[in-house]
Amino acid sequence: MDKIKKMSDIFGIVIHGGAGTILKASMTAEKEAKYREKLAESINTGYEILESGGSSLDAVEKAVNVMEDSPLFNAGKGAVFTHDGKNEQDASLMDGKTLQCGAVAGVRHIKNPISLARLVMEKSEHVLLISDGAEAFAQTQGVTLVDEDYFYTDQRWKQLQLSIKREKQSHTDVTALDHTPDEKHGTVGAVAVDKAGNLAAATSSGGMTNKKFGRVGDSPLIGAGNYANDKTCAVSTTGYGEYFIRLVTAYDVAALMEYRKLSLKEAADLVIYEKLTQLGGSGGLIAIDGWGNITMPFNSEGMYRGFMLSNGKKEIKIFKD
Description:
Blueprint: E1 12-20, H1 29-51, H2 56-68, E2 89-95, E3 101-107, H3 113-123, E4 128-130, H4 131-140, H5 154-170, E5 184-185, E6 188-193, E7 199-205, E8 226-228, E9 233-239, H6 241-247, H7 249-259, H8 264-279, E10 283-289, E11 294-295, E12 302-309, E13 314-319
Parallel strand pairs: 3-4
Antiparallel strand pairs: 1-5, 1-6, 1-12, 2-3, 2-7, 6-7, 8-9, 9-10, 10-11, 12-13
């Protein structure tokens, strides 16, 4: 699978806005239109960078920024609340050309966590910074911290109250609540291949509603929440994070391509429809390789997703069609 040279002139971007119980029957036409509009804006933002000769790294960062800035998704503005009523956000990105990567976890005052993750990659000798330390680093890089009120939305606050109520009624912990009918995982992500054939992946998330004890999911963990290697593919995942950590899902797709010589689709299907499903996890992933092949498998009811390629193919989908 070693890519000596770019085998295709195709470049493009794939994005996701989370997977979970997303049913057409419970989605109003107005709300669906808002999601499609914001997904299209994210795709167009990243694609325009690629079309003008920009890097895949720039494309995935800016595409994710669009979703972080929208209250529709569980990342940035509109992130879910912890049990204590706080917003703790995680993000990571990876450069497939160099295998450099950066990540932040548990940050509470960062408007665009994915951009801070990139600063960690480019301006520090580390990969993963957490909580207060990550925010102290952000200030050394000129990043302005925002007030916690910036992330607040009524919908997310109501979701927290409902989750706490269910928890009390069931006398159980939050991890048992993750498969309730109206739960969804709004993690956002993007993967891209640029004109030079270089790959990149980015993932950003507010985590799980009602999470406790500083819980961190898969989104800031390289190999679980995302992975990119020019030899194989770029992957961003979304779903019940603990399962993606246990399976090292994003890296597993790349490993299956490199060591078992599977195609991108074969590798991703094996990871989601067999490994993840057999373990009892739910969610999905998006992936692209250096030849412009893409795949977007998921085993949940829906996944906000879309792509645009230089060969004219483009699509935005939400439900399990």
